[in-house]
Amino acid sequence: MPPCFDYISLFLASLQLLQLWEKNGYFDEDTIQQLQNPALGLGQYQASLITEYAAVVQPMQLAFQQQIQALKTQHEKFVASLKQQQQAGPVRPAATPVEADKTPSMTTQAGKRTSPKN
């Protein structure tokens, strides 16, 4: 049997179990709603943790927001400088690079220039 059928069977069984719990009143209404919608339950749990540990979470959130704002400002300055450079025209190199492997010429006693390879 393919694995997808196992997941379907598991899902159907969990729905039946949830309906049984709801019918027999094993859990309060809030818990049943959280079981029916796990994303809602997770969001509520995270919110409760943030509230419970506000003394630790708030300074971290503030530092994170400040860092994000600093990065946004840096990015905006970078974009502005690129736009300014683009409007000014293409950048040309100041001088051509000197060839590194070129050897200097040598002068003989008679004043003739020769290459060291001659």
Structure description:
Strand 1 (106-107) and strand 2 form a beta hairpin. This protein has 4 helices and 2 strands. The chain is elongated and about 110 Å long. Helices cover 68% and strands 3% of the residues. Strands 1-2 form a two-stranded antiparallel sheet. Keywords: Signal. Residues 1-20 form the signal peptide. Residues 82-118 are annotated as: Disordered.
Distance between the termini: 85 Å
User: How would you characterize the largest beta sheet?
Assistant: 2 strands, antiparallel
Order of helices and strands: HHHHEE
Measured on Cα atoms, how large is the radius of gyration?
A: 37 Å
Helix content: 55-70%
Unreliable sequence segments: none
Order of strands side by side in the largest beta sheet? Answer: 1-2
Shape: elongated
Label the structural class: mainly alpha
Mean pLDDT: 82
In terms of DSSP E residues, the strand content is: under 5%
Number of strands: 2
* Count of alpha and pi helical runs: 4
Region (Disordered): 82-118
Biased composition (Polar residues): 104-118
Keywords: Signal
Signal peptide: 1-20
